[in-house]
């Protein structure tokens, strides 16, 4: 049996920040989950729909692994990423660091993990691995999934080899802190401004504030868009509010990040942005409740109301990001 010593195996609310927390604490860096999310410029919005999907997807964060890359770049961490098409090499890329006493991050498809009771393919899931024996892998996942968990090595291999949307080629990664002290405070403003810039100036209409506005128009059609509204709409609401987002489609996490940052950076722009995101978080929870109610009742009026709230959210978040974009480095 191989296990990395002194691993903090408490799961957080979101998968990628949970894995980051494990790897960073092993390097002596202890940051809150909102701070990790914010330093990674993790907040965005995407309305994703295609012919291959059963139902539209609302996303509130940047694409998988971009958060990790952003945090590593901002804090000056050495991020070593391994990808391969070979299952044998993929295992060596994980076993090597573990045998040396270093936890490893993995991106995989959660469908194949034993402890997941909701069997839905999601290849953008991220976990931290801190040990293995002849049969099982020892992982840290979100608090919702149990924190410190085990899964069969056979299933782990399938999860890592999975192909499809958001998948990676057996991706594994490690983080190493620099010799000097890491000063997260110095990187708060650049992280916020980068997030604001991307949100305010998205390249396509499905992203950022434009995506929220588009969602407000299209959500009204969801009863007709779905073959099974009683299944699809409550599931969409669940993913928005409780599916590893930290609540309110990640707006709760960003609200808390801005509040923590306001204690470190004295700025009226920052305080205004935090106030507006506190309002936005409440409204996103309201949208999720309306979508869920529409699916249960088959009442289109709930979706019309949700669309109105989304229009207001596009305005509120745009105003918040404009304020945050005015921060001085």
Structure notes:
With 329 residues, the chain is an alpha+beta fold. The protein has two domains: 2-30 and 78-176, Cathepsin B, Chain A; 184-325, Four Helix Bundle (Hemerythrin (Met), subunit A), CATH 1.20.120. The protein is 49% helix and 14% strand. The chain has helices at 15-26, 33-39, 66-75, 87-99, 153-161, 188-200, 208-218, 222-225, 229-241, 251-262, 268-297, 300-325, and strands at residues 2-3, 43-48, 57-61, 78-82, 104-108, 125-132, 136-140, 148-152, 172-176. The strands form two sheets. Strands 1, 4, 5, 6, 7, 8 and 9 form a seven-stranded antiparallel beta sheet that branches. A two-stranded antiparallel ribbon has the order 2-3. Helix 9 runs antiparallel to helix 11 (268-297). The protein is globular, with a radius of gyration of 20 Å. The termini are far apart. The mean pLDDT is 95. Pfam families: BtrH_N, DUF4872. This is DUF4872 domain-containing protein. InterPro entries: BtrH_N, DUF4872. Residues 14-142 form the Butirosin biosynthesis protein H N-terminal domain.
Query: How widely separated are the two ends?
Result: 48 Å
Could you say how many structural domains there are in total? 2
Roughly what percent helix?
Answer: 40-55%
SSE pattern, N- to C-terminal: EHHEEHEHEEEEHEHHHHHHH
Query: Under the CATH scheme, which architecture of the largest domain would be assigned?
Result: Up-down Bundle
Question: How many strand units?
Answer: 9
Principal-axis shape: globular
Show unreliable segments. none
Q: What is the CATH topology classification name of the largest domain?
A: Four Helix Bundle (Hemerythrin (Met), subunit A)
CATH class of the largest domain, named: Mainly Alpha
Overall mean pLDDT stands at: 95
Helix and strand composition category:
alpha+beta
Describe the largest sheet.
7 strands, antiparallel
The percentage of residues in β strands lies in 5-15%
Count of DSSP-assigned helices: 12
């Amino acid at each position: 049996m191989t296990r990395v010593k002194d691993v903090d195996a408490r799961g957080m609310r979101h998968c990628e920040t949970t894995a980051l927390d494990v790897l960073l604490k092993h390097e002596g860096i202890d940051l809150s989950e909102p701070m990790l999310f914010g330093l990674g410029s993790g907040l965005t919005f995407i309305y994703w729909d295609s012919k291959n999907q059963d139902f539209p997807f609302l996303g509130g964060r940047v694409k998988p692994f971009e958060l990790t890359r952003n945090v590593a770049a901002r804090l000056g961490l050495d991020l070593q990423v391994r990808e391969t098409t070979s299952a044998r090499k993929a295992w060596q890329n994980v076993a090597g660091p573990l045998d040396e006493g270093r936890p490893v991050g993995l991106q995989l498809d959660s469908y194949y993990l034993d402890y997941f009771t909701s069997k839905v393919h999601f290849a953008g899931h991220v976990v931290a691995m801190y040990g293995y024996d002849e049969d099982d892998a020892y992982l840290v996942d979100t608090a919702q999934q149990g924190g410190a968990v085990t899964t069969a090595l056979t299933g782990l291999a399938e999860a890592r080899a999975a192909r499809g949307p958001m998948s990676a080629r057996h991706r594994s990664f490690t983080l190493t802190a620099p010799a000097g002290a890491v000063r997260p405070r110095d990187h708060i403003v650049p992280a916020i401004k980068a997030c604001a810039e991307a949100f305010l100036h998205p390249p396509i209409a499905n992203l950022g504030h434009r995506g929220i506005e588009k969602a407000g128009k299209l959500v009204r059609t969801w009863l007709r868009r779905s073959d099974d509204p009683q299944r699809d709409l409550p599931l969409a609401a669940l993913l928005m509010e409780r599916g590893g987002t930290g609540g309110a489609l990640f707006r709760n996490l960003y609200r808390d990040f801005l509040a923590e940052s306001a204690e470190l950076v004295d700025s009226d722009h920052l305080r205004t942005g935090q106030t507006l995101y506190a309002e936005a978080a409440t409204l996103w929870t309201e949208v999720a409740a309306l979508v869920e109610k529409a699916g249960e009742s088959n009442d289109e009026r709930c979706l019309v109301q949700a669309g109105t709230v989304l229009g207001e959210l596009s305005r509120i978040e745009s105003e918040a990001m404009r304020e945050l974009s005015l921060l001085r480095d």
